[in-house]
């Protein structure tokens, strides 16, 4: 995703014994990569996200990350994934602090443990949404909890939204997902949510047009998984134009995320330089809109 580098002192052990076999194709493959990055972070001396669920999950999967073409690349990119994940955790908590009764739509959740990390209060109905094979996998790794729901569907299918209660504010959160959608489908999804709920927030990350081109060419994860990249956003004006009724709460470069301060000194220096280099600054945006 970026040229940030990462060194881990320890490594996740190779799989042994009875592990859950994982066979996925297309965009869902990318989520294992996310989990592995989070597991490496959790195993490092100074974690940024500290996702111990990811570490446990990787130890239960019949999948050797050390030989995967996907995760070879990710070793260099762990920091961008964990900085982003930790920043969204902060934003989700901020939203839930001011909206004790809310619906959370965690779209393209993959195998992310956010609902357990954030541990929302009793007024929150939390929906994790992803393709059916991903949801089936989640069920093998994570326990159930009250007011926590799994939705096995494409996020762009309008039908699943019909079953979601609309009597309270909504938080739509999609991390590492927008780029795998076609622009018209992504925009239609945001519009549907804004039209349907009384109020709420949209929290998403986007790759710029330049970033998308670079990923198409150079990103092993994208190429290996055979994913098509269809939606690039250069700045919040793209969303303001496309989705009536929303206003910007925050739109920052990943290099300006407050969680980038948790990086080791060398990488912090790199993020400061990247933040002042226009083409890099725009590569990955973390956006937050209210309506
Ligand atoms: C890069 S992973 C990110 C997973 C998770 N959000 C995280 O940060 O760990 C992308 C996820 O988006 C999901 N995804 C992509 N397109 C989707 C769609 N149309 N409907 C549902 N899920 C989708 C994939 O299955 C995958 O789990």
TrEMBL record:
Q: Which GO terms describe its biological process?
A: methylation
- What Pfam families is this protein classified in? LCM (PF04072)
Q: Does the keyword Transferase apply?
A: yes
GO MF entries: methyltransferase activity
Q: Does the keyword Amino-acid biosynthesis apply?
A: no
Q: What SUPFAM superfamilies is this protein classified in?
A: S-adenosyl-L-methionine-dependent methyltransferases (SSF53335)
Annotated segments matching region Disordered: 1-20
**Record keywords, A-Z:** Methyltransferase, Transferase
Matching PANTHER family: S-ADENOSYL-L-METHIONINE-DEPENDENT METHYLTRANSFERASE YKTD-RELATED (PTHR43619), S-ADENOSYL-L-METHIONINE-DEPENDENT METHYLTRANSFERASES SUPERFAMILY PROTEIN (PTHR43619:SF2)
User: What is this protein called in UniProt?
Assistant: O-methyltransferase
> What is the protein's species of origin?
Mycolicibacterium litorale
Phylogenetic classification of the source organism = Bacteria, Bacillati, Actinomycetota, Actinomycetes, Mycobacteriales
């Amino acid at each position: 995703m970026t040229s940030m580098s990462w060194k881990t002192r320890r490594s996740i052990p190779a799989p042994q014994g009875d592990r859950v076999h994982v066979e996925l194709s297309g965009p869902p493959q990318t989520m294992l990569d996310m989990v592995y990055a989070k597991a490496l972070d959790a195993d490092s001396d100074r974690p940024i996200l500290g996702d111990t669920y990811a570490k446990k999950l990787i130890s239960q999967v019949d999948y050797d990350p050390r030989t995967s073409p996907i995760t070879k690349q990710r070793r260099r990119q762990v920091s961008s994934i964990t900085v982003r994940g930790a920043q969204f955790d902060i934003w989700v908590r901020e939203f839930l602090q001011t909206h004790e009764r809310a619906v959370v739509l965690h779209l393209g959740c993959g195998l992310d443990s956010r609902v357990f990390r954030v541990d929302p209060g009793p007024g929150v109905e939390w929906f994790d949404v992803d393709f059916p094979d991903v949801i089936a996998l989640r069920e093998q790794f994570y326990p159930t909890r009250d007011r926590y729901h799994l939705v096995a569907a494409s996020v762009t299918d309008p039908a699943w939204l019909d079953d979601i209660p609309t009597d309270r504010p909504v938080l739509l959160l999609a991390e590492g997902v927008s780029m795998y959608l076609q622009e018209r489908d992504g925009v239609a999804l945001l519009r549907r949510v804004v039209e349907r709920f009384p109020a709420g927030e949209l929290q998403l990350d986007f790759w710029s047009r330049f970033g998308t081109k670079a990923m198409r060419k150079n990103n092993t994860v994208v190429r290996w998984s055979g994913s098509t990249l269809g939606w690039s956003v250069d700045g919040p004006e793209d969303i303001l134009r496309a989705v009536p009724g929303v206003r910007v709460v925050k739109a920052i470069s990943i290099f300006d995320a407050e969680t980038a301060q948790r990086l080791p000194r060398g990488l912090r220096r790199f993020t400061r330089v990247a933040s002042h280099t226009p083409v890099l600054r725009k590569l990955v945006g973390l956006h937050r809109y209210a309506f």
